[in-house]
Structures are given as C-alpha cells and as structure tokens.
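F.,

This is the one I mentioned.
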C-alpha cells in the first residue's frame, strides 16, 4: 500500500514515518508533504492508496484540503489534536483518526482498518460527503448523516421530531410519521445534534421546534406537534424550560 503524509510539522511527519516503518511495514511512504498545496501535488504525482492528513495546518487545514481534491479515491486517516466536536464529526462519518501524540497500538489498528477497506475496494464519495455534512459548527448543519451497513442515511434536521431509545436501540422519528432504526447510542445523537435538540429524558431527545405544549408536573410532560406525550425527567426540567424559551 502506498501512502503520503501531509503535516506542516517536520517532527510530526518524521515521527509518523518512523512508526509506520517499524509497525506497519505493509505501508510504503512515498512522500512527506509540508502543507495542503504540497499535498495536492503529491496526490497527483503518487496516486496514493492512503493519506495521513493533519487537520491543523496554517492557511488551509486538512478539511479544506479534502474539499479541494476533485476526486477522493484514497483512504484518509486524520492525524490531529483537534477539538471534541470535530472528532465526533469524523467518527460519525466512519472516517478514522489518530490523536497526537501517536499511540503505536492505535496506529496499527487504524492502518489495519484502512488496508481492509482499500482491499475491499470500498468507495469514498459517500464517506466524505457524510463528513462534510456533519462537520463545522453545530448551527451550520442542515442534515444529519448516519452511516449504516449499506452506506449512509441522510435526515434533514427540520424534519426530525425526536430520537427515542427503546431496549438499547435508537429510533429516529420524522414529521411525516416515519420511524427509522439507527444503530447508534443516544449519546451519539446528543453530541452531534445542534442546539434546537434537547435530551429531556434518558430515553428521549426532542426537536424543540416540534413542541406543541409543556404540561407542568414533577418533571413535566412535553406534547409534540404529532400528539406524542414525552415525560421530562425532574433533573432536566429547568434546562428544558430554559432551552424552550430560547428556541
């Protein structure tokens, strides 16, 4: 498998190359690129199977670099010390990443997964479309993109009414009455969905824009536009009322 490394820090490039040589001999590093522009030239020259891509680079970061590549026909492993939300967007898109400083076991595992995907000839277009949809500030997201066994599912945010956990399975409800089983835990949605979504109970996240009425009580009860009644946990009551007043 042929690879290039794109990282603006010389120490980072050299350290990763040395670790790959020692622990992942199946990977041949053809080029060490110093920035995004250098990386584009390397992509065209070497046609790599795998790209190790730093995110935090000056002038043009790793995400900007990926957006600029006309056809992403290689696997990407992000190498970063990036913030929690960006990492969640990466994970939500089924991409892989390594945190700096690099851990040998995590590197070996990430490379093994990448090699398997490359060997199977898995397509990349949907994967990076999912990444770019999930990426950015939460307020800028228009669609929720969730990977499944056959590809990706796209859900316009304004149509999502709620997410419910039933016996450790998550179900996503939309305003057309549809119900979709999604193999993700509630924490996944809680971290990824923007501010108009609020977790009101251990088993419920709701879209506050689809709330019809709040009934006072110990914790309270939310009535959704479709008539669904959802209990609010006592410890969440104040937060839910505050969030509702700001949406």
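My design for it:
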């Amino acid at each position: 498998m042929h690879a290039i490394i794109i990282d603006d820090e010389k120490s980072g490039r050299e350290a990763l190359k040395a670790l790959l040589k020692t622990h992942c001999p199946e990977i041949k590093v053809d080029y060490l690129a110093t920035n995004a522009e250098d990386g584009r030239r390397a992509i065209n020259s070497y046609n790599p199977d795998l790209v190790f891509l730093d995110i935090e680079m000056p002038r043009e970061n790793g995400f900007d670099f990926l957006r600029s590549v006309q056809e992403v026909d290689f696997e990407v492993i992000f190498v970063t010390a990036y913030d929690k939300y960006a990492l969640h967007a990466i994970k939500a898109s089924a991409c892989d990443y390594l945190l700096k400083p690099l851990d040998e076991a995590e590197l070996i595992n990430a490379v093994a997964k990448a090699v398997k995907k490359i060997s199977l000839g898995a397509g990349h277009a949907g994967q990076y479309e999912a990444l770019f949809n999930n990426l950015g500030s939460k307020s800028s997201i228009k669609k929720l993109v969730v990977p499944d066994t056959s590809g990706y599912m796209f859900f316009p945010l304004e149509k999502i009414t709620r997410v419910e956990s039933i016996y450790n399975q998550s179900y996503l409800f939309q305003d057309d009455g549809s119900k979709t089983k999604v193999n993700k835990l509630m924490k996944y949605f809680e971290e990824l969905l923007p501010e108009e979504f609020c977790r009101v109970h251990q088993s419920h996240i709701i879209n506050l824009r689809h709330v019809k009425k709040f009934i006072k009580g110990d914790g309270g009860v939310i009535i959704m536009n479709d008539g669904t009644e959802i209990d609010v946990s006592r410890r969440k009551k104040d937060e839910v009322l505050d969030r509702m007043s700001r949406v």
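Residues 85 and 192 are 8 Å apart (CA to CA).

Talk soon.
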